[in-house]
Amino acid sequence: MVKLTIDNCEVMVPEHTTILDAAKSAGIQIPTLCYLRDLNEIGGCRVCVVEVEGCDQLVAACNNYVLDGMVVHTNSPKAREARRTNVQLLLSQHDSRCTSCVRSGNCNLQTIANDLGIFYLPYEQHLAREGWDFDFPIIRDNDKCIKCMRCIKVCESVQGLGIWDLTNRATHTAVGTRGRAPIGKTDCVACGQCITHCPTGALRERDDTETVFDAIADPDKIVLVQIAPAVRSAWGEELGISREEATVERLACALRRVGFEYVFDTDFSADLTIMEEGSELLERLGKAAKGEGDSRGWPMFTSCCPGWVRFVKARYPEFVDRLSTSKSPQQMFGAIAKTYYAKVLGVEPERLFVVSVMPCTAKKAECALPSMMGEDGAPDVDVALTVREMVRMIRASHVSVDTLVEEPLDTPLGFGTGAGVIFGATGGVMEAAVRSAYYLVTGKNPDADFFTDVRGLEGWKEAVADIDGTKVRVAVAHGLGNAARLLDAIRDGRVRYDFVEVMACPGGCVGGGGQPIHDGCELAAERGQVLWSLDAKADIRFSHENPDVQACYREFLGAPLSPLAEELLHTDHHA
Length: 575
Ligand code: HC0
Ligand code: SF4
What we know:
This protein has 575 residues and is an alpha/beta fold. The chain has 2 domains: 2-91, Ubiquitin-like (UB roll) (Roll), CATH 3.10.20.740; 207-575, Fe-only Hydrogenase (Larger Subunit), Chain L, domain 3 (3-Layer(aba) Sandwich), CATH 3.40.950.10. Helices cover 33% and strands 14% of the residues. It contains 18 helices and 17 strands. The chain has helices at 19-25, 77-91, 108-115, 150-158, 193-196, 209-217, 248-258, 266-289, 306-315, 329-345, 362-366, 387-396, 418-421, 428-442, 480-491, 524-537, 547-557, 563-569; strands spanning 2-6, 9-13, 49-52, 59-60, 71-73, 138-140, 164-167, 174-177, 203-205, 222-227, 262-265, 300-301, 352-358, 383-386, 460-467, 470-478, 499-503. The chain has a 5-stranded mixed beta sheet with strand order 2-1-5-3-4, with helices on both faces. Strands 11-10-13-14 form a 4-stranded parallel beta sheet, with helices on both faces. Strand 16 (470-478), helix 15 and strand 17 (499-503) form a beta-alpha-beta unit. The protein is globular, with a radius of gyration of 25 Å. Residues 228-230, 266, 270, 273, 304-305, 328-330, 358-360, 363, 423-424, 429, 508-509, 512 line the site of 2 iron/2 sulfur/6 carbonyl/1 water inorganic cluster. 2 iron/2 sulfur/6 carbonyl/1 water inorganic cluster (HC0) is lined by residues 228-230, 266, 270, 273, 304-305, 328-330, 358-360, 363, 423-424, 429, 508-509, 512.
């Protein structure tokens, strides 16, 4: 152990502890801006500088370690003055029009500048005023970038993509796409992890809220909204509603007050996905067992995460045929809404305007894919909003959240089982699929918790699911860096699996790039627990037992993989 003094407090911490963590253990919060634990510990922003007795120079607290007998002052006049100057220099290249910034009120730079009493700038301001492709789901505004490198690090180290890089040199240093390519021409999968790791408003999603408000105001449109599984784990965070209170039923109430006519659940179509994808897997396994040829190759990959699908297309094109042809639950919902549900309502499909609320930015790109259009060329899903956009709509609609009550979702597309709910956490799609595969093979249900081996936050998990004697080798990865390691191992023949789930974001959609932002805090584990406990409490925990899914097959689709199901619910990833 090391004994030192911080701001007149005696502190004992293990060796190799940073000054930042040692101070934290004594209840002293040194401000940071660029720091991200284990990911970005470069001390670049110089906001965490502290004075150490005996040192001529101030030191960054985030990447300097404690020494026995050290005496540290975190807020001495010298440290405070340097911190203020460093922030003022950052602001001299920063577009500080906070009132028109999406991160106003949730911005570390704004908080720190205020806390330091920076109410004027002694330096002349220089802004870059660069252009951007504002149709892309991820928007970059370099006049709000503080060059902290967090986006570069998360894209490179966690996602293994390396879309962002430093451009130019010296005082012209900036962050942009590697090689300055237009963002749409890069391999960016639009996962949005750069947004949730950005400390300022330099990165944000394309805002589609006005398009939705316009549709709501259009008397000819019937506006439906679907709520993704992981949304229910996080929507209350920015509105100050506790996890216990922030139920999907209370969210339904909020969305109706915003003006949505019908509120449905993507969990419904997650159950539908299990029927289609599970049947596809079993059909392929059956053919393989009979020795019938299958040119697509093994394993079969899930296809519900558009970030992952885009990653395969861009970086591992030789594996595209291994993706399940099943559309994602978001897209299955849209396709069913504009056909089956239009019939239920007795209206022309073009009157329906389908919105989805997703924890995801990549879903904006997915719903715009040419392969995700209906027969008439109209999109199955008209607009995909992030949770953050939805929260802005709730606020802009003057909904006071303390008056929200629990209201049931609409029928028949508003009911999902416990298996549908867990889609939003890593391992959930696999677990839901194995539960129903057991039934589809044996005709009887296993215990709903018979296969829990792929839960948890390990980056690459593998297991063998025993389906009444048939062994199915499965793997689950989350975070594209982990996915790349897994794909390399498959390609090199080091591992062999039958079925693999990949979600692009760490933790799965609960950690998605469209979720509320809490600077420097990873909440995927906590949010995932919300979903696992909703499943544990659910009355129905098997996708094949969803009565609304059963009715949809009985009244409309016929059976899984029927010609109509193939037409509406499956896609060609080469299209
Ligand atoms: Fe997900 Fe999904 S689980 S990708 O993360 O499969 O966004 O929550 O909606 O579509 O259901 C996101 C979340 C979904 C889809 C579902 C899948
Ligand atoms: Fe979107 Fe979920 Fe995939 Fe992340 S893991 S890109 S949130 S679908």
